[in-house]
């Protein structure tokens, strides 16, 4: 078994636990009582769809660095995954990326309808903040810090703003720096929240918070770059979506702009940067090191 | 000057203050730095559009009953108005109510485009929770209570769920009890949050919180009923939108089901119920009494 395969086993195990917890949440009294059936079904369709649960994984793993209570980390991980899934539902809408299939299944607006997809996304986004606010596993101060950070990273100067830049990009060619800004906001912001969240629930210092946020940004850039490489080199099976789709839609990527070799060199640089940040955590960061290698190498 | 006219003056004054504060928020460093221009413009279009600011008014007035700091009440009022405005932007979308005009101006998806409208709504919703989380005017415990209550009232068992039921209703005739449930969720939930929020920022007892939440529900039912009466009797000028529009779309209202006289009797009952709840607050509740009369009488 290669180290990548070994890591995939770990990631899959975590994904199973996260998905089981999500199933509990979406089958809980809180959600079943009062939620229209069709809306709850649409949210479940959007959330329980076999995702890799990379963001929850990063919350759980970074929380371990600070011996944070498992339950506290899981509560944040679940809320973050709700945000990620809402963003996918809205991004798939006809007015946005107009995708019919995600992870081999119809997207929410295809399986239900557009109005239901908009509302399922709104519902997940609204729920995420409530889940953190009500997470008794986390003391009040970090709970508030988490909500503030999540609002900023998922909001108009973060993920939502990144999607806006991505939509605008379809009308004109982006420059190098504009692509980086868009991707940092669209993908990087939630990954950097994931890593920083572990430090927050672990009651870590501001230095640790900043370092892990930085790690999340580095992993976000690497993730996006390897995604673009996969898109360019065209291994559709590894992506679960049509290869070259992004280029087909006229979306400029850094790989399209600078070439495959440049991208591979850049991925190597990013892996070194991540290793440097993880040195502070010694052996405790073994799994996060494997995660870094996994993100960097999945496109090779 | 009639008492209704006097109250309208008070409401308009509050609306001016709220709108000025919203302008500050949407011109603040926090939002200008990092938010794509077009997205910020779309959010401003959706928020600074001459609304009556009834929900902020109710937060501010109920907070006065408990001598809560003005700044704390305003911070919540602004967040709540962001939620209300996001819901209007999404409700107006072609896949939802498909409205082109709101308060005499093009809706956000008409003035911009659908994708921008979806993202502007998402951005406002995300921002609202961050504004409360970062409201230093409010101690940590009530801040968390506010976020939890807002998430529940604005979420899938509240406002978002109500809009879902409203969408479903276009396909079949709703029964009496189903209309009530839909309207309680769609309109009542945010108004009940508005009133309860004043009690929360004022550090009031659970009894007060429950009573004011109840007041908000009563005002919500009255508001909806007078809205439906206006729709039925057709004073388009008073509504700022096309009269009989809801009936024209085949939406069943309680007025359509039970008639104008029944609705007026019911409005009277609701005003008595509100007066009973406000008795606990004596002269301090004079403005809230005027608000009740205003809501009840605007359709006569």
From TrEMBL, chains A, B:
Q: Which one of the record's GO molecular function terms can you name?
A: metal ion binding
Q: Which cofactors, if any, are listed as required?
A: Mg(2+)
Domain of life per record: Bacteria
Cite the entry's keywords alphabetically. Isoprene biosynthesis, Magnesium, Metal-binding, Transferase
Does Cytoplasm show up as a keyword for this record?
no
- Keyword Aminoacyl-tRNA synthetase listed? The answer is no
Q: Mind telling me which SUPFAM superfamilies this protein's record contains?
A: Terpenoid synthases (SSF48576)
What sections of the protein cross the membrane?
A: none
Q: Which residues are the signal sequence here?
A: none
User: What family does this belong to?
Assistant: Belongs to the FPP/GGPP synthase family.
Name by which UniProt lists this protein = Probable farnesyl diphosphate synthase
In its UniProt entry, the species of origin is given as Consotaella salsifontis
